[in-house]
Amino acid sequence: MKRIYLDYSATTPVSPTVLEAMMPYFSEHFGNANSMHAYGSEGAYAVDTARRKIADLLKVKPTEIYFTSGGTEADNWALKGGAQAYLPKKRIITSSIEHAAIISSCAQLEQQGFDVTYLKCDKGGIVHPEYLEDAITDDTSIVSVMFANNEIGSVQPIKELCEIAHRHGAIFHTDAVQAMGSIPVDIADLGVDMLSFSGHKFYGPKGIGVLYVRSGIKPDKLIAGGHQERTRRGGTTNVPAVVGISVALEEAIRDLDKNRRHIKEIRDYFVEQVEKNIPYVIYNGDRNNRLPQNANFAFEFIEGESLLLTLDLAGIACSSGSACSSGSLEPSHVLLATGLPVEKAHGSIRFSFGKDTTKEDVDYVLDNLIKAVKKLRAMSPLYAQFTGGKTNV
Ligand code: PLP
């Protein structure tokens, strides 16, 4: 059976050259990067090289790059560490469409007595600067708004949001997990104080992320332990993964324009065909300020989960809501924040495209998707009610 993966926003495969670069650090160069002998030095050298490579690619200082266990840890550290470090200020501002890594960190901080403001978004999922301007107070310590949303791909006006935060004496963090490797990320131009990203979203390994922390900004420690990461983040360094994320980032930035063009072309073709061939669909998210890899549709009168399973049987992998929240029957908080009604949020599916997705893949998906939607609507009481009993509308 044909298998087509359209869930690249959930994760990507490790590129062969990234894997090749990582391999020696599992075996012959297995040393602990903190050990005081030749084995340790080999690991330490690899970590230093990777840190310098990432810093050069992002045009920041190596001392501003901290390795973490992934995007989730980087987000937790920025938020919780930032909130603690800037006490007595007690207000944190974030958006209502953040990833669970930020939303759950905020919920914990609220339990500890911090005040959290969740900015609204417009119906395309954009958090406009004026929403922040209206909400920010002098006791705001940290503002955290994601660069691009993982479910609907909306890309936020980070530079403008960051300027407002700074004007009011707050620091600014952005979760760039979905943006990094997919669209240009210019840290100096954005002016952000902290930025998170994760290796497995751009053909690097899972379980490795980076928190960029501007010099002079000192979030409190999240993971207490040894002297790793200049004593700011304890835990034996995952040398193969550190090497892997640096090579993956190098490749992602080198091929950014080419991949972005290809992925956007494929995505635009898919969107055009869906809208042409399937009635009663809503294209969730903003048409223009959007990640090139993302297409998210609400298929009215059917359940997203049923559609997902039907497509899975045809070998097609996509996602209802975000992979991170699957297992939950709650409708997506992101779609609800855009004003989509609950039943339409339940009928929503995310398709995310990768650098190796072909037009033939998309045609196969379209063919199966059109059939699946027809079949599920034919069984849907809501659809029957809507059409007055006719199921072949
Ligand atoms: N932030 C966003 C926007 C994401 O999409 C994800 C993962 O899907 C994360 C954070 C978490 O990253 P990780 O899987 O590396 O923990």
Description:
- With 393 residues, the chain is an alpha/beta fold.
- The chain folds into 2 domains: 4-11 and 256-387, Aspartate Aminotransferase, domain 1 (Alpha-Beta Complex), CATH 3.90.1150.10; 16-254, 3-Layer(aba) Sandwich (Aspartate Aminotransferase, domain 2), CATH 3.40.640.
- Helix content is 41%, strand content 13%.
- It is built from 14 helices and 12 strands.
- It has helices at 16-22, 38-58, 71-85, 100-111, 129-135, 158-167, 187-190, 239-254, 256-277, 304-313, 333-337, 342-346, 359-378, 381-387; strands at 4-5, 65-68, 91-95, 115-119, 140-144, 171-175, 194-198, 209-213, 281-283, 294-299, 316-317, 348-352.
- The strands form 3 sheets. Strands 2-8-7-6-5-3-4 form a 7-stranded mixed sheet, sandwiched between helices. A 3-stranded antiparallel sheet has the order 9-10-12.
- Strand 6, helix 7 and strand 7 form a beta-alpha-beta unit.
- Helix 3 (71-85) packs parallel to helix 4 (100-111), helix 9 (256-277) packs parallel to helix 13 and helix 10 crosses helix 13 (359-378).
- The longest helix has 22 residues, at 256-277.
- The chain is globular and about 75 Å long.
- It starts with a strand and ends in a 6-residue tail after the last helix.
- 47% of the residues are buried.
- The model has no long low-confidence stretch (mean pLDDT 95).
- The site of pyridoxal-5'-phosphate has 14 residues, from helix 3.
- Pyridoxal-5'-phosphate binds at residues 70-72, 75, 99, 101, 146, 150, 175, 177-178, 198, 209, 324.
